[in-house]
Description:
Blueprint: E1 11-20, E2 28-36, E3 38-43, H1 50-58, E4 65-69, E5 75-76, H2 90-98, H3 106-115, H4 131-144, E6 149-153, H5 161-174, E7 181-185, E8 197-200, H6 201-204
Parallel strand pairs: 3-7, 3-8, 5-6, 6-7
Antiparallel strand pairs: 1-2, 1-4
Amino acid sequence: MSSSPTPSAPFLLQTHALSGGPADHAVIQRLSFTWSAGLHWVCGDEGCGKTSLLRLLSGDLQALGGNVHMPPGGVFWADLKGPEHDQTTVQACWEQWRTRYPQWNSALLQELSEALDMERHRNKPLYMLSTGSRRKVMLIAGLASGATVTLLDQPFVSLDQHSVKTIKAFLREAAEAPDRAWIVADYEAPDDLPLTSVLNLSAAT
């Protein structure tokens, strides 16, 4: 089952009959959905297409059919899991993203870096980081990007409880922003966050 924002809410990101997936496999099929401002969740079982949908929404993956209506303020998406990023330092990653997003918030990045204990890792290449710390590099960048729409893929995996609480506290506050959307993909929708919509891909595609 899935739910959309109310029709009266202006949309920030919208798909129409969107189809696509990795290696030309249409794991997402003819999906039409609208995301307004607020905090949204995309959930479903393993292999249902959660990550593929985020990649399609960002333009990182080319659609096989349909289209995505992009917001003028940009969409943030990051994937640092591949080995091609191993030699890049944390600071270099953040600098690269800073140049792409005009509303980048350096003060917020500093605050989050300290709160998530990443200051001591700034000059380390990614291969030296744990899985959790590597994920924090992407999370901090996404939260500080200032993009109109921010896409987060399983943000709590491999994080300690303090970091999970910090990210959730940020998302609770961010959910109130009238001009930004946060789309999070994970297996289940949480019951402790104020969600604007929930899209269950196991039922919707």
